[in-house]
Each structure stands twice: as C-alpha cells, then as structure tokens.
Amino acid sequence: MNAVAPKGLVIAAPRSGSGKTLVTLGLLAALRRRGQVVAPAKTGPDYIDPAFLGQAAGREAVNLDPWAMRPQQLRALAAQQATGADLLLVEGVMGLFDASANGQGSTADLAEALGLPVIFVVDADRQSQSVAPLVSGFARWRPGVRIAGLVLNRVASARHERMLTTALKATGIPLLGAIPRRAELVVPERHLGLVLPGDLAGFDTFLELAAETIGDFIDLEALQSLAAPIPQAELPTSLPPLGQHIAIAQDAAFAFLYSHLLDGWRAQGAALSFFSPLANEAPSPDADAVFLPGGYPELHGAKLASAHSFHAGLRAARDRDALIYGECGGLMVLGEALIDKTGASYAMSGLLPTVTRIDRPKRVLGYRRLLHESALPWPAGLNGHEFHYSSAKQSGLPPLFEALDAEAIRQPPMGAQLGRVMGSYAHVIASA
Q1: Topology of domain 7-229, per CATH?
Q2: Which residues are catalytic?
Q3: Which family is annotated (predicted)?
Q4: What are the Cα distances from residue 408, in Å, to 266, 367, 380, 424?
Q5: Chain-wide mean pLDDT for the chain?
Q6: Are the CB atoms for 207 and 165 separated by under 8 Å?
Q7: Domain boundaries, the chain
Q8: According to the model, what pLDDT value does residue 2 have?
Q9: Is domain 245-431 given the CATH code 3.40.50.880 in the classification?
Q10: What pLDDT, on a 0 to 100 scale, did the predictor assign at position 359?
Q11: Which of 54, 211, 266, 310 is placed for a possible disulfide with 277 were both Cys, Cβ 3.0 to 4.6 Å?
C-alpha cells in the first residue's frame, strides 16, 4: 500500500504588508497546538522570515526560490521538507505576481511549479465592496495559478465583514475567515527587514496571540481540505561542500544560512561543525574550510573586535591553507575594520584589506548571476542574491565574482580573494 503523498498550500497576497507572515505564523502555531506537524517554507531568498516560521512550526524552514532554483530542485526540496508532515505551508513573497526585474521568481511561479493552490490574504483596511474585483482580477490573471481560498485581514467591524463577505460571493472563491484589526499583531522591523525571533522581546506571547487569533477566526478544517499533493522529484546534486570538514560561524551576528546547502553538504559526506564568534570561539582546528555567513556583525562591532580567540583561529586556518569564505556579514568580518552606524570603527580579522562601513547607508538589493575563477569548489556559474546597506572598500585584489543582475545588466565586480581567503556581498543559493 502506497503512503499518502504529502500535501501543501501557498500563502500569498496582493502586496507586501497584507498579513502573509501573520497568517502563516498563526497557522503554523495553531495547527501545531492541535498536534499536527506542519512543515514551513518561504518563497525567495529571505533569511529572516524562515527563522520566524521555524520557531512557530517547531522545525526548520526551507527556502524555495523560483528565480535561483530550477523546477526540479524546487519540487524535490518541497517534497523533502514535507516528508513526515501533515501539511507543507509556504509563505509567499511580496505580491502574488511580483517578481525580479526580469519578471521571474514570483510566488505565482513557485505555486505553479509545485502545482499548489494559493490561500490569498487580503488587507481589507479602508475598502469594502472593491475587494471583490481585486480578488477576481488576481484569480483570473494566470490560468496556471489557482486561488483556492481567501482570508481577510484587518477587518474593522462585524458590519465591515458582512459587506466584504457579500461582495466576495460573486468571485466563487471560499472565504475561510476574517481577522479583526489588532495593533498588537504587527511584527516590528529592523534595518534589513524583520528582527530575528531571539531579538524580539515577547515573541512567544506574540505567537500565542497569533495562534489564538487564527484559530478563532479561520476555518482550519476548510483550509486544510484545500491542500494539494506535492509532486515528487529526485533531488539534484547540491553545490559541492567547501571542504570535508566545514567550520561554520553561527550566532546572532552570523545567522543567515540556507538549510538546503547545509543538508546538501551533509548528503555529500562533509562534516559540519559550528562555532560562535560572539562567544569568542575559534573554528575547529581540524577544519579544512571555514564559512562565515551573513548576519548582523555591524550590531556587534565591539564584541567581535575583542574576540581574540576567534581572530587567531581564522589566522591559523589561513596559515594551514584552509579555504575561508565569507558572505556579506562574513566579508565584513574578514576585512581590516568595520565602521558602524555611529561612525565608530572596530578592528576585524584583517585577512582581507577591506574596510566596510554602514554609517552612510545605501541599500543594494537584487538577484545576481555570478561567474568566478577561484578556489571555491563550485561551478563557474552561480545564482545568488545581494541585500545590504553597508559598503566595502578595498584595493589591489582580484574580485571574487563577476556579476549580472536579473536583467543581465553587468554589475561592478564583487568581493575580493587573497589566496584561499575570499568573500563578497553575494549570498550564493544554487548553481546557474
């Protein structure tokens, strides 16, 4: 007898700020309360939302990026994530059809690639009957994308709800619930987006309130009945591991890690060990590769500057010819100095002649096609993403990557490499 194929749903909206994260978090927590196992996923390259989703679900979230990943990888990762779960719940990004500059990578692209129905979250604030043509337009826009159910957010009153409900009957799409307007259900933001769960005082209380609200105002049985089977696919080979033993920085300053990369490295036989630079820990002396991922080092300048064992461990890794690779925040820490938003300068490891600063913030954001000739054991062509407010200045070193943006427009060369020490602002996601 064949096992029942896992099922999934995509949570999407007309635009950012509609309540996707609130609804997804609340659903994860509410269903978990009922004893169900729900596997969380996030559309796109976001690092922050998956941390919230994972905490709400009690299991790690995975990124599903329809711009950077091929359809087979998307289907395989979704199926793998849903294994052993009652439901895969995928939070979308921005509006349903919003994508990169070349029109690819939207939540709709992911829903279509996975064949999953969409639960559409609409912010009803300051509108009534106009909600119906808005929903109807989205529902008819793309035949391969099916909006299977609706959730209204920020409903002002019972009368407001009746007006919305009456208007939506014409769409023929089931209304699963209406969430009242509550100021306490807003997650605060920080300079790179949302705060991390560990930085948000009272997050557990917030999650409890979200679970209660979703449980009270959404028909959970009806919602789950709309889920569709997740297609099965064989997982393609991940990017090769950076080494046979990879020491990976992981703490509040180095929090941006893609789980699919780590899982892929383990599957290829690499041993992974973790260390905390903020706790003044050094990478394992047995590691033949050190990975410094992105995060928020600019918020911890003084502590990182005084982490002498950490810096000594990096120098020792360099001296034994280990590969040392930094992404974004990792690049910042590989440099000579970091200047924070107040203008204070903190000495970093000095492995690259780079100075980064965030006292003159300028946002850089977008997907990148990357080409490299370096010691990285990866294909020459890679897909990645760049999102930062800091800037880096260095001279005399070859760049790590040549880069194109999503529209294939050439970008300035990225990063630097000095022997087997290298880094850039790009977060690498998959092979091109």
Answers
A1: Rossmann fold (3.40.50)
A2: 328
A3: Belongs to the CobB/CbiA family.
A4: 33, 10, 16, 19
A5: 94
A6: no
A7: 7-229, 245-431
A8: 42
A9: yes
A10: 85
A11: 310
